[in-house]
Amino acid sequence: MSRTSKAARRKPPSRVKFERSHPTISCRVSLETYNLLNKGRQEEGWSFADMLRAGLGGLRTESRRLEEIRDRAYRQGYREAETRFKVAYACWACGKLIAIESREAKQSAAQYMRDHGWAHVECLKTSGHASP
Question: Which residues partner with 98 through β-bridges?
Answer without folding.
Answer: 89
